[in-house]
Amino acid sequence: MTTIREATYELLRQQGITKMFGNPGSNELTFLRDFPEDFEYVLGLHEGAVMAMADGYAQASGEIPLVSLHSAAGTGTSMGVLANTAVSKSPVVVLSGQQLRELVGQDIMVASHDAAQLPKPLSKFSAEPISAKDVVRTLSQAIHLANMHPKGPTHISVPHDDWDQEIDENVALTISRKVTDASALAEANLAELTAALDGAKNPALVLGPEVDATHANTAAVHLAERLGAKAWIAPSPARCPFPTNHSNFAGLLPANIADISDLLSEHDVVLVVGAPVFRYHHDKPGNYLAAGVRLLHISQDPDEIARAAFGDAYFAPVADTLERLAQSVTVRENKQMPKAKRAPGVDREGRMHPDTVFRSIQELGPKDLIHVVESTSTAESFWGNISMSEQGSLYTAAAGGLGFGLPAAVGIQLAQPERRVVAEIGDGSANFGITGLWTAARHQVPVVFVILRNESYGALVNFGRRMGTEGLPSFNLSGIDFVSLAKGYGVRAELATNESDLRDALSRAFAGNEPVLIEAVTYFD
Ligand code: TZD
User: Fold this and answer.
1) Under 8 Å CB-to-CB from 314, ≥6 apart: which residues?
2) What is the pLDDT of residue 340?
3) Which of 96, 135, 298, 341 places its Cα 20 to 30 Å from the Cα of 204?
4) Between β-strands 312-315 and 294-299, what pairing exists: parallel, antiparallel or unpaired?
5) Of 376, 380, 461, 477, which is best to mutate to test ligand 1, by the most ligand atoms within 8 angstroms of its C-beta?
6) For this structure, is 222 an active site residue?
7) Boundary-marking domain end, from 149, 176, 203
């Protein structure tokens, strides 16, 4: 007899899913027992960390990980990070455990009452199979949906007595299904877009995370060069879709209406690719676009297209469309674009300016270093000092939900063993995902964790100033010793209060091959 559990592992195997991130409870043990040797289970100590590791792994590997979580409390705990996973469109399949089918209705201990409902707003699909016989097909549905554009997290909840039931013989057909994304922009639409770009006096590109996620950075470079166009990164960037050292790179668009409109006003055609139009954050009202600017939008996410307030959109695959456009536009002269210089911040006695931290990382890290950034008040310092030239060089919390960065760095490093990962994390943010350190130590995942210890929720102080909200309670975070915390979780750690100590610590960290935490003491004012 073949059980549903055996058939499920075969489905996962055939769909290329052998990496599992999890935190178990009693409901999950029947699924996890006799754990097959060709699967790897990465244990996280908190479901937020589990979700972030899986999300990072999915984004950096292009593979789907399975996330195995406990019923209501476990799945619920993961949802802060799941908000990011939904926005970053990471193909993660969550399998939560459930109490015995017949007793769920009585809401006994660790049953998940209305389990499908729990992560629904943050999932592309969420279901509890109507019977044990439908478990494999429902999981197959969750896998294929997670992997089709727009990609994203899916969830199924399975009662623990389902796993040992016998399968129906039709399951074999479901397990071996192959699903191919065969969509492409029609020739007539390509001609229309090409004509719009060729007819523009001064076109610009605005590139979003889907460009990097679909490995289309080189195609974006070709298109920018052939059009002689500025290439902006769309606001609130989750990834880096264009080499920041390229002469066509114009910078990062600010996350508010008025400044975007102002910066794009010199252009007559703006082509937004693989980004929402637009992901604002700060309130600075104005006209969405200056008079005479036409906005065109390419996205493989119908929801992103439908909810935009302006622009003519094409629902089309990002990578293929960029490549074909680069081939079809008329080649123009590509002039060198001037770059603005900024004066570096100055260190103080016993405390560094964030510029010092990012500049040191830039100078001492390998050229293809991967950055996982969750240091919320230091974005200007980061973009002012860090240069990224390769695909897959930046990952951030796509929905702004803290607790992603530190553990996501572990998942990303697991997915990219050939490259080195640095996690640049604020002292406030670090606490939301601190348990990721333990998994890094347990699996010897050689992330360099740099904690920028400014002893403040700096971004919130900044927001308070901008919004004029006076008389706020204190956001002072003094008294957290990250060196001791890291050592407690088994990660080697060093303290750096000045540039020379920081450079020594970074050099040692990059020369070694183990996880290291550097507590970099910075200031915020
Ligand atoms: N909780 C979660 C899960 N996500 C959030 N974004 C917040 C709370 C609110 N929040 C921000 O948006 S930024 C921030 C908080 C608490 C402060 C982060 O402090 P930090 O970095 O020390 O990591 P800075 O550079 O001092 O801002």
Assistant:
1) 185, 189, 193, 296, 297, 298, 299, 321
2) 79
3) 341
4) parallel
5) 376
6) no
7) 176
Determine the Cα–Cα distance for residues 477 and 523; give it in Å rounded to an integer. Answer: 12
- The pLDDT score that the predictor gives to residue 341 is 84
Q: Would you say residue 466 lies in a domain?
A: yes
The whole-number mean pLDDT for each consecutive block of 10 residues of the chain, a chain of 525 residues, reads: 96 98 97 97 98 98 98 97 98 98 96 96 98 97 98 98 95 95 96 98 98 98 98 98 97 98 98 98 96 98 98 98 98 85 93 98 98 97 97 98 98 98 98 98 98 96 92 94 98 98 98 98 96
Q: Is 228 a catalytic residue?
A: no
Looking at the structure, do residues 162 and 240 belong to the same domain, yes or no?
no
Q: Which residues line ligand 1 (CB under 6 A)?
A: 80, 375-378, 400-403, 426-429, 432, 454, 456-460, 524
- Measure 228 CA to ligand 1 centroid, in angstroms: 39
- Active-site option among 70, 160, 267, 371: 70
Q: What is the pLDDT of residue 424?
A: 98
Task: Domain count for the chain, please give it.
Answer: 3
Task: Give a three-class secondary structure readout of 98-129.
Answer: ECCHHHHHHCCCCCCCCHHHCCHHHCCEEECC
CA-nearest residue for atom 22, ligand 1, is 428
Q: Is residue 348 part of a domain?
A: no
Same domain, 314 and 446: no
Q: Domain residues for 414? A: 354-521
Q: Which atom of ligand 1 is nearest to the CA of 430?
A: 23
Residue in the block written with tokens 């540039």 = 499
The pLDDT, as a whole number, for residue 192 is 98
- Residue 252 sits in a domain whose CATH number is 3.40.50.1220
Same domain, 378 and 321: no
Nearest CA to ligand 1 atom 1: 402
In this prediction the pTM is 0.98
- The answer to whether position 337 is within a domain reads no
Ligand 1 atom, smallest distance to 401 CA: 4
Query: What type of residue is 277?
Result: V
Q: Are residues 134 and 229 in the same domain?
A: no
For position 376, which CATH number holds? 3.40.50.970
Tell whether 393 is covered by a domain. Answer: yes
Q: Which residue, 123, 142, 176, sits at the end of a domain?
A: 176
To which residue do tokens 């992603």 refer?
A: 404
415 and 270: one domain?
Answer: no
| Residue from 62, 76, 251, 400 carrying the catalytic annotation | 400
Question: Is 25 a catalytic site residue?
Answer: yes
How many helices and strands (H and E) does the chain possess? 21, 18
